[in-house]
Design goal:
mainly alpha, 106 residues, flat, 74% helix
Length: 106
């Protein structure tokens, strides 16, 4: 029976996969080179890139500004937590006895 077939079966195709190597350092270097070329241009996109790069570099370079900003954020957070704790304490001391009396009467 193997000599005579009514239908021909397709042959399997080989699997040809060539893995690619990804280098994040090279990718970042190429991205920075592309941005540098964009900043050199005199059109609107080049101007936008120069302004954007200026903001990034100023924030990264000014460590004192970043530290001051973080300190302000932490102080604001502590103040908010303190106000919430004081509010919760006030509500519990003033209204908890009233609520307990209402529950006991029912």
């Amino acid at each position: 029976m193997s000599l005579f077939r009514f239908s021909k079966l397709p042959k399997t195709k080989p699997f040809n996969f060539t893995p690619r190597f990804y280098d994040p350092v090279k990718d970042e270097l190429e991205e920075r080179a592309k941005e540098r070329e964009m900043r050199k241009q005199e059109d609107i996109e080049g101007t936008k890139m120069r302004i954007r790069a200026g903001f990034r570099s100023k924030y990264k370079a000014d460590a004192a500004f970043a530290q001051k900003s973080k300190r302000q954020q932490n102080m604001r957070l502590l103040m908010i937590v303190g106000i919430l704790l004081f509010g919760a304490y006030f509500v519990l001391t003033e209204f908890l006895p009233i609520w307990i009396q209402m529950i006991e009467k029912k």
